[in-house]
């Protein structure tokens, strides 16, 4: 058996730089997203509202991501992946910084919605650039690694929160959570790397050469009608996927603090251990999908999450909770590790920067109020305790995801380096 890491050694400088840029873009985008989740309790205290009111910010971010996928995907088809990716990074950094200076909760909700537009564009554009540049032979491995950029962002957010937030000054008019958002604006520095090191997608360049008079227009109504059955199915599949990840991650820091009594340091560190498990799971199942197929890898990982529930949600010792978090996210993000390759292989070549991203983010839209529902159900039926709600979410969604994936098609090994 070949070592999957050897794929990285075979990359050309152009391929390596493209992958690094896309991985960092997705990681830093996720870092900005999770900073908000770690600060939910602090924001609620600062604005004197219940947690459920602040969780609406997560909803607005998720709800606006499909619009970002459509806008930035269309720009990537017309302007190219590289330039659009730079614009995307600048955009989400600006809106993250604006969140730090929100004078009211309403203003904060607006900046989180705008951040969602920028966040929604990054995944589709970055994935298209990566998979149109990387060798197809090890696409599963790089799919797992690329998707776990999201987990890496969560890991960085957890580390920064654990190491920085407890030491911030708690008095005065400047709330500590605002400093966290200022730190979150740092990803804009990635633009300099993309500008100096990253080359445009060879498939996009070849396609532009053949259609110089009529540049790519993005996903049109004709495209949607043509590919409607597969498009709708992928949206529903991504709804299950996003419910799986966000349903287990977004409120977990709040669960650790409010229901398990962890302090800020342990809340961050347990989340970090979970992120390490997620990173390992994504790479493991992404690589495994090259041998057993995309669908079988997803089903195996999804069902593996169910027996992890007792350790993950029902124990009280910090070490056991951390172990449960590691194993749970190993399974959940193991399934997710197959997604970038699977969606890009299923997408029509002419709209690859738009189709996967829009399907992914529309799935996010359909599941975007899950956090709010989880919080409200916990408040109304379990005295605010999230244990039962989180457990039920993982069990139900894992079964649904496994069934839907079993019904799906597969195009493993599709050549994506040709002209669009």
Automatic annotation (TrEMBL):
Span of domain Major facilitator superfamily (MFS) profile: 18-410
Localization terms from the record: Membrane
Residue ranges crossing the lipid bilayer per the database entry: 20-45, 57-76, 85-107, 113-131, 151-169, 175-194, 226-245, 265-285, 297-314, 320-343, 386-408
PROSITE patterns for the chain: MFS, SUGAR_TRANSPORT_2
Membrane topology: Multi-pass membrane protein
MF GO annotations: carboxylic acid transmembrane transporter activity
Entry superkingdom: Bacteria
Keyword entries, A-Z: Membrane, Transmembrane, Transmembrane helix
Name of protein: MFS transporter
Organism of provenance: Terriglobus albidus
A GO term from the CC aspect: plasma membrane
CDD domains: MFS_SV2_like
InterPro entries: MFS, MFS_dom, MFS_trans_sf, Sugar_transporter_CS
């Amino acid at each position: 058996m070949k070592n999957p890491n050897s794929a990285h050694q075979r990359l050309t400088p152009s391929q390596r730089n493209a992958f690094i840029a896309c991985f960092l873009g997705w990681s830093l985008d996720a870092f900005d997203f999770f900073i908000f989740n770690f600060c939910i309790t602090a924001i609620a205290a600062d604005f004197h509202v219940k947690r459920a009111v602040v969780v609406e910010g997560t909803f607005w971010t998720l709800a606006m991501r499909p619009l970002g996928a459509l806008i930035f995907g269309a720009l990537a088809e017309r302007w190219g992946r590289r330039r659009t990716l730079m614009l995307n990074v600048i955009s989400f950094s600006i809106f993250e910084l604006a969140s730090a200076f929100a004078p009211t909760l309403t203003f904060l909700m607006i900046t989180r919605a705008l951040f969602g537009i920028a966040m929604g564009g990054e995944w589709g554009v970055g994935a298209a650039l990566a998979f149109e540049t990387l060798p197809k032979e090890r696409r599963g491995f790089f799919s797992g690694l690329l998707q776990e950029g999201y987990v890496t962002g969560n890991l960085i957010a957890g580390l920064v929160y654990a190491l920085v937030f407890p030491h911030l000054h708690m008095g005065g008019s400047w709330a500590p959570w605002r400093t966290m958002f200022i730190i979150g604006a740092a990803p804009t520095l990635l633009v300099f790397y993309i500008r100096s090191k990253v080359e445009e997608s060879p498939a996009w360049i070849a396609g532009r050469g053949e259609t110089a008079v009529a540049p790519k227009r993005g996903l049109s109504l004709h495209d949607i009608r043509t590919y409607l059955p597969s498009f709708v199915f992928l949206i529903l599949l991504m709804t299950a996927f996003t419910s799986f990840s966000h349903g287990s991650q977004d409120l977990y820091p709040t669960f650790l603090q409010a229901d398990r009594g962890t302090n800020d340091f342990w809340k961050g560190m347990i989340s970090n251990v979970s992120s390490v498990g997620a990173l390992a799971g994504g790479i493991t199942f992404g690589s495994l999908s090259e041998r057993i197929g995309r669908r079988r890898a997803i089903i195996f990982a999804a069902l593996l999450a169910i027996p992890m529930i007792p350790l993950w949600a029902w124990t009280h010792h910090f070490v056991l909770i951390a172990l449960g978090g590691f194993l749970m996210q190993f399974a959940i993000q193991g399934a997710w590790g197959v997604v970038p390759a699977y969606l890009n292989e299923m997408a029509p070549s002419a709209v690859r920067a738009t189709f996967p991203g829009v399907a992914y983010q529309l799935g996010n839209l359909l599941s975007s109020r899950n956090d709010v529902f989880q919080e409200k159900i916990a408040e109304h039926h379990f005295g605010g305790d999230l244990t039962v709600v989180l457990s039920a979410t993982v069990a139900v969604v894992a079964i649904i995801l496994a069934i839907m994936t079993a019904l799906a098609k597969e195009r493993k090994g599709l050549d994506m380096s040709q002209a669009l």
